[in-house]
Amino acid sequence: MADRKVRAIGLLSGGLDSLLAHALMRAQGIEVRAINFYTGFCILETQRRLGRKRPDGSTPRNDALQAGATLETEVELVDLSGPDYLRVVTHPKYGYGANANPCIDCRIFMFSKAREIMEQEGYDFVFTGEVLGQRPKSQRRDPMRVIDRDSGLEGRLLRPLSAKLLEPTLPEKEGLVDRERLLDISGRSRKPQMELARQLGITEYPQPAGGCCFLTDETFGRRFHDLMRRKAERRLEQEEVILLATGRHFALGPNAKLVVSRNETENLLLLQYTEGRYALEAKGVNGPIALVEGEPDERQRELASRIVGRYGKGKDLERVAIEWRRGGESTEVAVEPYRSEAEFEKLRI
Amino acid sequence: MSELPKPELKVDASGKFCPVPIMEIAKVARQASPGQVIELIATDPGVESDLSAWCKATRNEYLTFAREGGTLRALVRKR
Ligand code: SF4
Fold first, then answer.
1. pTM for the full predicted model
2. Does A26 touch chain B (CB under 8 A)?
């Protein structure tokens, strides 16, 4: 083994696999710098912002920070949520998974960032908690090779949990890492990992939450692709990401879209994004805030007003006045609220 | 009750969504000297659990946490 301090960058998602990878590397005496990439598409952060609880009533926690607490290691949160990452989302070279998830390109982007830090600060290699065959697209052998190559990390990206099933990496060949102490886990079962956690005394780790990235979410994906079709230029802004994850969405037509809040917290959130959009609200009765993007015609204004009326306290009234505000101007549309959601369900995005 | 120390450094992350407040305090803490007290002001409710996990991970001392309306104020002493 090396007669100097070996230093590695570990990408820590906060899930059990990444915790184990860190523990395995540290057990080999390797100095680990734990990094977590924040993409801005985190479901958990949005849920917390909207005050949502877990099924057991507790508040969702940031898994990467919790993992840092468990490992007693500082986890450096690196913000990737800017325009460069958004461009990866709108223009993935390797396409999308089942929804709006460009997982291969996303990983290439993250691993390239890790490589930059590795090179700038003299680390020996990068490792992840990835397990061969665990995810349908990005964690198979061929995509892994593509990711390694395109991120510039070929040979310097170690996956300690599956390493014995993969070609030896440079740190293994150079004697910086003892390959014999790496593992040969593959597939979707979590049993080997749970057993390893028990052996290593790791008792606190998150249960798989069934998707933590909005890009893999079916509803979000549908809204994202709909938005891309609506735009003249394939571009995504950060505030659009927040809006795609908020409220109920309805297509009023090819040039106009309605977003209706579902609760008080979403009301406050939508009110932050009124610039350049119509803000709708029922007059004289409590109800949701809604936003309309685009230039609706008269029929679409009525449609939107009837939907907004349906979600307010005036839903059973004969008529409700909906106020439309934009840029200091205000008009009113008086409508009969829809009597049931089924009447406009086909507009839902 | 003992008096709370006066913060020497301040991070105002009001209006910023998690995990940005933690990124900001981490940046200030990296430059701070041991023993310095940092005040974090934030509005995202997720800060409460994030800050306690971050303090545990970094071994910085989590001194207090208080809410005033929608504003959260915490004091942390750098180790
Ligand atoms: S699920 Fe896919 S797109 Fe989302 S963060 Fe992970 S790799 Fe990236």
1. 0.92
2. no
